[in-house]
Amino acid sequence: MAMVLGYTSRAAACHFEAALSAWETAAAAVLQREGILSQLVQLKAAMQQARQQQQQDPAEQQATVQLLLLGLDVQQVHQLLWSFLAATEQVQVAAGLLLEATGQALMVGQEPYPPAGAVRSAAQLQPILDEAWQLLGEMPSSVRL
Fold first, then answer.
1. Contacts by 43-48 with C-beta closer than 8 Å and gap 24+?
2. FRET partner for 12 with CA separation of 20 to 30 A, picked from 49, 68, 113, 144?
3. Domain for residue 141, yes or no?
């Protein structure tokens, strides 16, 4: 409500549509990134479980790993990681548009979004892809994000 009240004056009212569009764009970008992040969290948990099962019973390796990796092959893991990077970039662009349109930074609580220390680069995601290659043994690890 406070946001809307800021646009009640005649001078500010002409900026309301641009501000609303910027907020909608930012919200969509955040939702997309958070959805992919949720999938990455599930993937990391599945990979950890696969590693533990491999150590317990190496003979059952391939079938179990396939199930544990949520039905993803290495190419799909690669695509998921790239999707996350693209979604992160979209959030950065949307945050810039929001700042330009409203003068407000994209925040969650008192922290900027994405938070400091959040994954933002291919180098930070490469270990996930490398581990998927090791578990599934489908692609050479020379392919990089």
1. 43/69, 43/70, 43/72, 43/77, 43/80, 43/128, 43/132, 44/128, 46/70, 47/128, 47/131, 47/132, 47/135
2. 113
3. no
